């Protein structure tokens, strides 16, 4: 949106101003991308397919968190708790009542919305750091509830779920559809009144209120939407893994999701997806790098420690040197091509 | 009686840890979520110096304390000074990332085996009788006394020494403080150094009882509610908050359910955030309220 277009380009109607795909080039690029995404599972091997599925799953959660943190400006450190809420709703309904997919998915969404309301309530009184801390506390509560269920019902190692889909290719298309639906939903929300209200709150609450925005309702709606989407992602996660356990939803998972938002670039849906790709592929890239350097043997028992170290380092480097994230790099590249042969926009235009 | 002793020891642990949170927050308005990892680093520092100066336990303790102070300065000097003046989120995330980095690096350097610094120092952890029916371990006793000493020292430092007064001034109003010629970076670095020093002390003393394990990080995180309950910018509050949180935790574990241990502090935290978000002794106007 902020990138200057080349000359001879005008938007002559409001419809065009709001269009998701504006120019012909954009439409062609999108078409090629969609074709490539559909062709991917027939070309990729089993491992690459699993990676793609993980990326798609993570991108749903990352987009949801981006709506909350990147657009509405509400910090949340409880994302893993929400994924856990969705996954445990699915697990419990499946285990206790033998519920099917079409029951557990809406149920997870409903639980997510309810918890979103709960997560959102502190935001009416608290801001910034204190809000982050309250979501962190709620994260521990949700995880504790999950653990409690596991120990009480004797599933101490976790709950096993039979998935209705087992073929990874079928999973790919399900997850692709889910991710695309999430993205489209978010895009539409953001260009409508709700999204504008969120951005106004992010900018300055007092001004937003003066403009006639119901700040409380907008904040709560941001939490509810984000938490519902995340909880649905948790439900899909449970089916994809076929296994739910409280250990899988540690604080580190929350950190990973926050890192997706930061590394991708705050305030951009493209950033959320880029961040999800980066964070999901990162450990595999590290592993490949170690194998290439011949260090894999030496550190084989401590591969997770290497991952932690490298991940922390990457996050720090982004925070310090590239606060705009991957999207910032992408925009600079775009601007470079658009402005070529100039370095910057000439003054006065 | 044993309950009271348990509460005292746990409260001392929380108090010693949470004064690090308070120091950093009070001076630079940054919440350090890497505190648990820095504590662990302090404990590993003690284990390392203990094997380095084997036979001279006192030298090892002094060396490891100095090391902890140095690590705190380094954290500020290398990383956190870049976050000065950045948004709250960026600074908190930087400390989170630092924590992840440290956790990985510590496993790489020190391995995953549980280590016992006290044995490496060549001392034994004896159990001492208190009154008729209660017992306290020597490490626990040192912990309680050490916490008292640290709080006393910090109080004197903040109120009577030149650098302490500078730290309070910088916490109150950084702009005015800077205009009066107080070097903010120096003051912030000192805050990080002191916080890491006290955190490292906590780490060393806890591990003398329990050995160095990854649960130490969780303990570090659980001490944060204590700091917030008391008010994030008040040392006295941190002390009182620690007693409240430790009391609630020990009593609930004892009478309700041992599984609650990890969530009780966060229950207390949420209750406090709902009722009085700025804490018992915190400054109300400092809080970013809507």
Detail the topology: elements first, then pairings.
The complex is a heterodimer of chains A (349) and B (290).
Chain A: H1 14-18, H2 24-43, H3 46-71, H4 79-97, H5 101-125, H6 128-152, E1 159-160, H7 168-191, H8 193-203, H9 205-210, H10 215-241, E2 243-244, H11 251-264, H12 269-293, H13 303-321, H14 325-339
Antiparallel strand pairs in A: 1-2
Helix pairs in contact in A: 2-7, 3-7, 3-10, 3-11, 3-12, 4-5, 4-6, 4-10, 5-10, 7-8, 8-10, 11-12, 12-13
Chain B: H1 2-28, H2 35-52, H3 57-79, H4 88-110, H5 117-121, E1 127-130, E2 134-137, H6 138-160, H7 162-172, H8 174-179, H9 184-210, H10 215-230, H11 235-255, H12 264-275
Antiparallel strand pairs in B: 1-2
Helix pairs in contact in B: 1-6, 1-7, 1-9, 1-10, 1-11, 2-3, 2-4, 2-9, 2-10, 3-9, 6-7, 6-9, 7-9, 10-11, 10-12
Q: How many strands in all of chain A?
A: 2
Major β-sheet profile of chain B: 2 strands, antiparallel
Order of helices and strands of chain A: HHHHHHEHHHHEHHHH
> Ends of chain A: how far apart?
17 Å
- Physical arrangement of strands within the biggest beta sheet of chain A: 1-2
The shape of chain B is globular
Helical region count of chain A? Answer: 14
Shape of chain A: globular
Distance between the termini of chain B: 45 Å
Q: Radius of gyration of chain B over alpha carbons? A: 19 Å
Mean pLDDT of chain A: 87
